[in-house]
Amino acid sequence: MRERGACAVLLATMAFSALAGIDTDGDDSDPLFSVFFGVSFGQIAAVAFGTTAVSAEFQGGALRVSLAAVPRRGRWFAAKLTAIALSVLAVGLVTGLATLAVGSAMPGDQAGGPDLAESLRGVIGCALYLTLMALLAAGLTSVLRSGTGALGILIPFLLIVSFVVGDMSGNAADFLPDRAGQVALHSGWDGSLGPWTGLAVTALWTTAAVTAGAWLVRRRDA
Asked: How many other β-carbons are positioned within 10 Å of the β-carbon of residue 163?
């Protein structure tokens, strides 16, 4: 499952970034995001990975088996989240570097491409953003005890809701978890958040979901 999730994140991000690079007309006002455009779709694979990793524990009594090995629920949940975070972070770094290489190789106005500092921020931002979104999905799955339920909320939100309210720059829409985190993938920004403050907002959403999940894991029956 881990290998399939890693491949899905990498391939989805690179494929859509390559398509965006082919379609560019050379006068893109945001060269960094044109390179990392595929992250908008790669995050779906990261969310699915985080969801599946946790939801598997709520099927067929798997959680009872896990808790028999690790009786302390808080420690078990922390270990599960650590495994998800380290896996996605590693894949995210590889994905960021590969996406940067693919995007930079696409035809277009190379003189207007991202500079070294922007490229480095994009790679690190890509890895951190994908990791936070995977953990957000894991926390929500723990709250709902259902992978289907978590995906039923997150996928429409990421693909529809965020785009519908996305044009309302400079207001509450900037503080949605995906829009805030993706500021790090832009060369410039008009809203109230910068690259690192945007990731911090996403981290707050993730912390809230994980905290709620941890609390419910301790209180509910396995």
From this structure: 13
Give the separation between CA 51 and CA 43, rounded to whole angstroms: 12
3-state secondary structure the chain: CHHHHHHHHHHHHHHHHHHHHHHCCCCCCCHHHHHCCCHHHHHHHHHHHHHHHHHHHHCCCHHHHHHHHCCCHHHHHHHHHHHHHHHHHHHHHHHHHHHHHHHHHCCCCHHHCCCHHHHHHHHHHHHHHHHHHHHHHHHHHHHHCCHHHHHHHHHHHHHHHHHHHCCCCCCHHHHCHHHHHHHHHCCCCCCCCCHHHHHHHHHHHHHHHHHHHHHHHHHCCC
Per-residue pLDDT of 108-134, as tens digits, reads 545 457 888 999 999 999 999 999 999
What span, in angstroms and rounded, lies between the C-alpha atoms of 95 and 135?
17
pTM of the model: 0.87
Place of tokens 């690190």: 124
